[in-house]
Specification:
This protein is an alpha/beta fold and 629 residues long. The chain contains 24 helices and 17 strands. Strands 7-6-8-9-11-10-15 form a seven-stranded mixed beta sheet, sandwiched between helices. A five-stranded parallel beta sheet has the order 1-2-3-5-4, sandwiched between helices. The protein is globular, with a radius of gyration of 28 Å.
Length: 629
């Protein structure tokens, strides 16, 4: 196998050009086989095999740098830099990440996981190299979808002033967006990037500048004429008008053409954008037909493309999707907004039934929030469905545009808490912290599927900002018999005893139920509270419970700093309640990728760990007998 010859960076250069097609096929076969076992991002990686090979052929890693936008398409890059053996543990705890990681390899130049960041980071490298006197090549790879993110345009605006070589690759996997204009485009590309042409253009312009009075006017007239011709013949004028040379479109699956255009791009002394057309899922028919479904997949059958584990129970996204569609029938003012994720957030059903009230704003979370604020101010009831880790990108807009005006925007915060295999950039473990310190914000965490449905109904009649936080995974159907009317700002006491109170937030109620059973079996008396509203804190409930309990145990799937537990601790201390507080939360660290249950155990928020912490705490504080029934 040709892959056997690639054990470190730059080994691909040892192969002959005749081997490239075979190597691309081997890489695709390898990725399909490995991801079918481990799960991961398939379609996006299959689409950039030749592009990645071409970059590795043209560059000298790790001196030269590749900055991947989002980074889920970096699997081929990892293969070509000697990490093939690590794919058996891909996205598993302690194994290699599904995204670029600087700690994993010196060939990974920048950690990524969110969209629209690569041009900014790449430009940072370029200017740092200028200051340090380095001459290496920097390439930022960005997808056409990521160009809907405003940060990308901020970076392009800045890159237009760059006086050094900086290559931006636009990976366009939607062929209907930009049509290949054929031979004329290729011809003009070669002229515009050729050394002779650039030297001639520079000489002419310098000569004209020396002509008194009329020189500048002549230059301006030439520029206007040239621009007019380009507008007719050349695509990508948006970039050209910004001062960034545009090359392409080029076939993203033709290694010869790709290496040629990248070599030409390296000759320029300013920013250049290479427009590459690729096919998402290339080489695997199920992924080509259903690229969205094969964006991020669980283990599947290679023969059929179907998941090995059949989905039997609905997840929280499914519950949200069904509930929001039903509410759309009753509330005509309800509108739904997503940032390029109608499938992931469950709004696809709403789009199908109420297309006139559905809005996909692209990968632009900041715009999504302010857009929703505008609609709320105009009398609508906007629901913004965004993953927890992506919503944090719109923090300023939540404060400035929603909460200062106290507008009734509903945030459906999906994938809160520990997410798992995607790692640090995707764990939803900060939302309670970054949301609960904003005046006028209100936060609810449902304990099960029924409470999610109920709080969505509550939200339709609620006239202020509200964030509903729910996790990834199967929607728990436990404690259905405890279903009760939701009252604003009120917690729900599920089981009342004395001595110990478990104050559990959302997903942690299920864990708290197990902790309670364990403690009761050991002879302890335990009260269990479904917190419901993280903000505002139910102070009346805390006051009442402090009368016949000695220990409050807060439980949340969020980092400790700024979370619910800290707020309870502060309230108890400020009001001198006669109880002690023990906080169970995630450590204030970025959690790596891995199985969710394993990560929770490592973080000490699983039932057994919490039970042991409580027992140890009581024994140390009170002696072994106190706190027993």
């Amino acid at each position: 196998m040709l892959l056997d010859l690639i054990n470190q960076a730059n080994d691909i250069k040892k192969l002959s050009e005749e081997d490239y097609t075979a190597l691309a096929q081997e890489i695709r076969d390898f990725l399909i086989h490995k991801i079918s076992v481990s799960g991961g991002h398939l379609a996006s990686n299959l689409g950039v095999v030749e592009l990645t090979m071409a970059m590795h052929l043209v560059l000298n890693l790790p001196e030269d740098k590749i900055i991947w936008d989002v980074g889920h398409q970096s699997y081929t890059h990892k293969l070509l830099t000697g990490r093939r053996d690590g794919f058996d543990e891909l996205r598993r705890y302690g194994g290699i990440s599904g995204f670029p990681k600087r700690r994993e390899s010196n060939c990974d130049a920048f950690d990524t996981g969110h969209s629209s960041t690569s041009i900014s980071a790449g430009l940072g490298y370029v200017e740092a190299n200028r200051i340090q006197g380095k001459e290496n090549t920097i390439i930022s790879v960005i997808g056409d979808g990521a160009l809907t993110g405003g940060m990308a345009y901020e970076a392009l605006n800045n890159a237009s002033q760059c006086k050094r070589n900086f290559i931006i690759i636009l990976n366009d996997n939607e062929m209907s967006i930009s049509r290949n204009v054929g031979g004329m485009s290729s011809y003009l590309d070669s002229l515009r990037t050729g050394e002779i042409y650039n030297e001639l253009k520079s000489g002419v312009m310098n000569g004209l500048k020396r002509i008194p009075v009329y020189g500048d006017r002549m230059i301006e007239r030439i520029r206007k004429t040239k621009s007019g011709i380009k507008q007719l013949l050349i695509p990508g004028m948006l970039f050209e008008d910004m001062g960034i040379t545009y090359l392409g479109p080029v076939d993203g699956h033709d290694i010869t053409k790709l290496t040629k255009v990248l070599k030409e791009a390296k000759k320029l002394d300013h920013a250049v954008l290479v427009h590459v057309l690729t096919k998402k899922g290339k080489g695997y028919l199920p992924a080509e037909k259903h690229p969205s479904r094969f964006h991020g997949v669980d283990p599947f059958s290679v023969e059929t493309g179907l998941p090995l584990k059949k989905k039997t129970e609905p997840n929280y996204t499914d519950i949200f999707a069904s509930a929001i569609v039903r509410l759309g029938e009753k509330y005509k003012e309800l509108v739904a907004i997503t940032a390029a994720m109608p499938d992931g957030t469950g709004l696809k059903k709403f789009r199908e039934k109420y297309p006139n009230r559905f809005f996909d704003v692209g990968i632009a979370e900041e715009h999504a929030v302010t857009f929703a604020a505008g609609m709320a101010a105009a009398g609508m009831k906007p629901v913004v469905a965004i993953y927890s880790s992506f919503l944090q990108r719109a923090y300023d807009q939540i404060i400035h545009d929603v909460c200062i005006q106290n507008l009734p925007v509903l945030f459906a915060v999906d994938r809160s808490g520990v997410v798992g295999s995607d790692g640090e950039t995707h764990q939803g473990i900060f939302d309670l912290s970054y949301l609960s310190n904003i005046p006028n914000m209100n936060i609810f965490a449902p304990m099960n599927r029924y409470e999610l449905t109920d709080v969505l109904k509550f939200a339709m009649e609620f006239n202020a900002p509200l964030a509903i936080r729910y996790p990834r995974g199967t929607a728990w159907d436990g404690l259905k018999e405890m279903r009760s009317v939701i009252e604003f700002g009120k917690s729900q006491v599920l089981y009342k005893e004395r001595s110990i109170v478990l104050l559990a937030v959302g997903s942690m109620v299920r864990t708290a139920l197990e902790v309670r059973e364990r403690l009761k079996a050991a002879g302890y008396c335990v009260t269990l509270v479904n917190v419901r509203f993280v903000l505002p804190v139910d102070q009346g409930c805390l006051d009442e419970l402090s009368k016949d309990h000695e220990l409050f145990v807060t439980m949340e799937e969020n980092v400790l700093n700024g979370g619910y537990g800290i707020k309870v601790t502060r309230y108890v201390e400020e009001n001198e309640l006669p109880v002690r507080v023990m906080n169970v939360a995630l450590p204030n660290v970025y959690m790596e990728h891995g199985n969710v249950d394993l990560l929770k155990k490592e973080a000490g928020i699983d039932a057994m760990s919490i039970e042991n912490k409580i027992k140890k705490y009581l024994e140390e504080k009170n002696g072994s007998q106190k706190g027993l029934a």
